[in-house]
Amino acid sequence: MLASVRGVQVAQSADNEADEGSEQAEGPENTADDAQEAQEMAQYQSLVKVTAQQAQLTAEALHGGSATHTELSVEDGSLVYDIEFANANIMVDAGTGQILKTEAQGQEQNDVTETPIQGSIQVPDNDGGDQGGAQQ
Known about the structure:
The protein is of the alpha+beta class. It has one domain (2-104): Nuclear Transport Factor 2, Chain: A (Roll), CATH 3.10.450. It is built from 3 helices and 6 strands. A hairpin with a 2-residue loop joins strand 3 and strand 4. Residues 1-39, 103-136 are annotated as: Disordered. This is Peptidase.
């Protein structure tokens, strides 16, 4: 599901593969995965206390610029908004609206050395790591 927030498309996400821009053939397995992801994202959306627009405005106020992309995702089992800028990524807690993490673009930490995020809304993290990205 896409919505426009101040000219920026806001995507609700659940799967890292689509975020990476990978193109995969649509087969029965992918269709079933997409349906499951859509169901999970609908459940996750019902848990959020902060809108994508509120999260984006908070991140823009901190960063001092306009976001290029906003999506709801699961990071370390926490429900967050991943707000992308041309030169940074900011993660905002989907329950409280607090900034959880700021990373300069290209400076993403290795999963082994990265400190896990502790957001206010905990959900199953089926990947065991970052789940971000499928646009619906």
